[in-house]
Amino acid sequence: MIRVRMAPSPTGFLHIGGVRTFLFNWLFARGREGGECLLRIENTDTGREVAESTEQIKRSLSWLGIDWDGEVRFQLDRMDECQQLARRLVDEGKAYEDEGAIRFRMPDDGETGWDDVVRGRIDFPNAQLEDVVLVRSDGRPTYNFASPVEDMLDGISHVIRGSDHVSNTPKQIQVLGALGAELPVYAHASDVLGTDGKKLSKRHGAQSVDELREQGYIPAAIVNFLARLGWAYDDKTEVFSREELVEHFSLERVSASPAVFDYQKLAWLNGVHLRNLPPEEYADRVSAYLRDQGAEWKEDLVRKAAPLVQEKIETLAEFQAYTRFLFEDVSPDPSLLDGGSPVLAEAEIALAGLEPFTADQIERVLRGLAERLELKPREAFQPLRIAVTGSKISPGLFESLELLGREETLRRLRAARGAAA
After folding, report:
1. What confidence score (pLDDT) does residue 202 get?
2. What are the pLDDT digits (tens) for 39-82?
3. What angle do CA 233, 237, 239 make, to 5 degrees?
4. What is the 3-state secondary structure of the chain?
5. Which of 58, 171, 199, 202 is catalytic?
6. Which of 113, 132, 223, 307 has its CA 20 to 30 A from that of 31?
7. How far is residue 69's CA from residue 63's CA, in Å, rounded to a whole number?
């Protein structure tokens, strides 16, 4: 039976590189019939910070749609069992006591190795492996003892983790061998680097799921992006649904080469996934994001504006910049309106009696106005766009005017004429 585990440390937030590794575990388990994915918190204490961090970890994984089987487990819950097993190893001569701590007796000769699914054969000379501490003098088990013990007790079949754990693996293999346990299959995923080739850090951008969520990225895009960091189905496919990832993922296609976290690519993928949403669901996402950000914008107007930008924006955060003019007054830069007063005046007259005040009727009237003034559409519409939205870039002009309504549109045209005078 396939059984894997996600094992974060409760350090305050879930690092995005760790999320990628958890995703690999989840995809591997969910892609195999009957596979299970456990969530284990590798804590060294039980303080309030651990509880808060655990909730953050659970919230981040749940938002991404990465679920787990059974209850969340905590490393310290197995402390008594670890102590008993360590004492057994001492009794068997495989470990010894040293100043209150219990240390494992590593062999001096030979090598410890394994066939890594990602990296191939890896061997460590035993002479280079120190006698690791199993249980500290205060009774707490160390990571290199508690982790393999839990893997043994939980029946973990595959240990899929980051390359930073490669040096821990031979020590844990020795421990498991001394305990008479069956070894899991090991797979060590590559590092995740910034575009400058250095280890991913704050200087590269967002470091947690919470930060990406606040910046307007959606789960489908993040999962798609993270899955492609070091894994490929073929040499061309970039966009995957969650279901397609589950269907196609395999450890054999995970690369040992470092993966690059490219925020431009993430933004592009996010835009693709946003555009693929049904309009109603897209509006739901926009509305929910605005609520999370504390923007008290009218729900019905938000939903009407959403279709106007679905093809334009790459993150939900951009919605506010594109549509703010619908919810707040604007102050156009007078220099951008230079020479536009005649168009604004004529447009005010043409739109004042327009009925119904709909996008198609507005377009018909304004295009006729441009022809009458012998102006190209861009020359005629740009001053109008700036006057009513405050920017050269906005959603469709005619649809925007319809949402603003006749009275507000006329008021802004008058105000802009005054500013340009």
Report:
1. 64
2. 999 886 656 677 888 898 999 999 999 999 999 998 888 999 99
3. 110
4. CCEEEECCCCCCCCEHHHHHHHHHHHHHHHCCCCCEEEEEECCCCCCHHHHHHHHHHHHHHHHHCCCCCCCCEEHHHHHHHHHHHHHHHHHCCCEEEECCEEEECCCCCCEEEEEECCCEEEEEEHHHCCCCEEECCCCCECHHHHHHHHHHHHCCCEEEEEHHHCCCHHHHHHHHHHCCCCCCEEEEECCEECCCCCECCHHHCCCEHHHHHHCCCCHHHHHHHHHCCCECCCCCCCCCCHHHHHHHCCHHHECCCCEECCHHHHHHHHHHHHHCCCHHHHHHHHHHHHHHCCCCCCHHHHHHHHHHHCCCCCCCCHHHHHHHHHCCCCCCCHHHHCCCHHHHHHHHHHHHCCCCCCHHHHHHHHHHHHHHCCCCHHHHHHHHHHHHHCCCCCCCHHHHHHHHCHHHHHHHHHHHHHHHC
5. 202
6. 113
7. 16
- Assess whether 202 carries a catalytic annotation: yes
Contact indicator for 199, 261 with CB cutoff of 8 Å: no
What is the percent of the chain where pLDDT is above 90?
79
